[in-house]
Amino acid sequence: MSFPPGLKAPVIWQMLSWIVQPFTLMERCAQRYGDCFSLALSTKFPPMVLVSAPEALQHLLSSDNGKDFDVPGELNEIFEPLLGSQSVLGLGGEPHRRMRQLMMPPFHGERMRSYSQLMGEITQTVIGTWSVGQNIDVHAAMQSISMRVILSAVFGVEVGSRYQRLEQLLAKMLNDMGSSLGASMLYFRSLRQDWGSWSPWGNFLRTREQIDQIIYAEIADRRAHPNPERQDILTLLMSAQDETGAGLTDEELRDELMTLLVAGHETTATALTWAMYWLHKLPDVRTHLRSELQNLEDLEDVNALLRLPYLNAVCSETLRIHPVGILTFPRVVRTPVAIAGHTLDPGTIILGCIYLAHRCESVYPQPEQFRPERFLERQFSPYEYLPFGGGARRCIGMAFAQFEMKVVLAHILSEVELSLANSKPARPIRRGLTAGASPVHLRVEGFIPVIPRPRTVTSARLHSP
């Protein structure tokens, strides 16, 4: 049982292909080598193994006990320029477990559901800026919605110059780093040259510095004027203590807030963009979903909304055909292990390929077709369907992201008539370290009258400097 086969091309060529056309590269390797192959994705590490068969994914993701596999901290350094060295995404072992426990409560259960009205209000605010005949940049609109939602969850904000400036800077940073050049700077340290604000890396550093100034100013304000009554995530993290009674440092708080702000909105914005594309490319799907929504007595009834089977199927199929994270977090082999017909030696880095797993024809017949009904016909195992990764590294915001998708889609389909502005098919593209969609534009055809409902939920204000 030899090492998995892979491309013989030079490392730099493989890395550039991974940065520019990762989807074509994965599909080509799968066609040539099957569901287990190797790729050179770093000049610092030997070729890495990618697996996509459910059995191999089960072996990999159910062995997060530190015995067979561990997390290669050095490889997660790719996140550091964006998120910082203390981000939960880069931590391993006990520090990772502790930080996950601290960060999970706001993204689950009743606390998560308490954001439903806010999500609806933010969606309606964005819709209110549209006019009949206008062409909407769908990703920009969805990014605006998801950005405001996560800012509200993290800071408990409503308005304020500091909040508005942070929103603008985060969007700028992510759009700049979402390009192929931006991704290249994360993969190739040699491109990180600060030649002033006019250079790509220098521009990124100065944008990040402005973001840091806002975040650290907010942390300082909270430390100077503590308010234990607040329920936002920053307050929760600032009150957390470990077994020695020590709390998080300002740097740790900053890194976790950046992780939430970046990962907590960009992935949802991309998923919503794809959902909006398919709903308006396939009229039958849109009609079916709109009919289900019209049967709701109250769009604000969160429990009823979450129980809608076709809405859930549409969201699930969106995340199947276009997973935002195309790979699981890497694991490193600790002891010799047999997986997918190959024996891997200690030190080998292995990743689950979510993109290819979601295109396995034996699991998903006609995988290139957008067909929500497949999620009504059967239930898929967590090793067949894993849009948020799996094991101990599964995304802590999974439930929150799915919840937000449902609320936003329900409001848009119930309040606006839209159509595709052109017939050009959307395609998956790289967006920074994740997958994105090529530009999608929808035309506003008209508005559907809605019955106003009383609003009672209020949010705290993010202090203006």
From TrEMBL:
Q: Which CDD domains match?
A: CYP110-like
The protein's matches in SUPFAM superfamilies, at most eight in alphabetical order, are given as: Cytochrome P450
Tell me which residues bind heme.
C395
Reported cofactor(s): heme
Please name one Pfam family that this protein belongs to.
Answer: p450
Report the domain of life of the source organism: Bacteria
Q: Which keywords does this Swiss-Prot/TrEMBL entry list?
A: Heme, Iron, Metal-binding, Monooxygenase, Oxidoreductase
Question: GO MF terms on file?
Answer: heme binding; iron ion binding; monooxygenase activity; oxidoreductase activity, acting on paired donors, with incorporation or reduction of molecular oxygen
Q: Which InterPro entries match?
A: Cyt_P450, Cyt_P450_CS, Cyt_P450_E_grp-I, Cyt_P450_sf, Cytochrome_P450_monoxygenase
Q: Which family does it belong to?
A: Belongs to the cytochrome P450 family.
The record's listing under PANTHER family reads: CYTOCHROME P450, CYTOCHROME P450 12A4, MITOCHONDRIAL-RELATED
Supply the name of the protein.
Cytochrome P450
Question: Which species is the source of this protein?
Answer: Petrachloros mirabilis ULC683
